[in-house]
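Per reviewer request, we include the raw input and output of the structure prediction for the construct analysed in the revised manuscript.
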Amino acid sequence: MFEKYEGTVVCASKYFNTDQMTKLYHQGIFHFGENRVQDLLKKQSELADLNITWHFIGHLQTNKVKDMINQIDYLHTLDRLSLVKTIQKYAFKAVKCLIQVNLTEEDQKSGVLLENLDQFLLEIKKYDKIELIGLMTIGKDNDVEETDRVFAKLDELANKYQLPLRSMGMSNDYELAIKHHSTHLRIGRKFMEFLD
């Protein structure tokens, strides 16, 4: 399904149990992304014998940072200064982070608004436990035109700030994301097809 895609496919594994994840791993999926800290830690413990690259792709509460920040390889959802400060406090080494940008400006979505992005980028430079490597966004449900605009904008911003990674595209819009140079797709339900 993703044979020609040259980026990284992250399995959004909140949909899957550890047996299913093991099956996907043996089919060549080595990157898994969790949305909830307790699920991440439980699955990591159960899958400790597999060489998995772990991504955190959900909204991260500051009170959960201590438990998980040294257990992940990538954080896709850096979105506020209080989170930055908490990571700085608890991380043993620099954490590879992507800033979540809320380009649809929907209230129910987390992320830094475009007008605040410059300031946020300036502020996080002070923190040596944040290794900023990219940007992340989420398209708009059932709106192809708006999602296309959002993905194009994220690509433009990543170029502007010379950030190599663009985390965008899920099961229902990954083709649009690939068109706009996504380096990391976050695919969930689509992987059910691999398990049939």
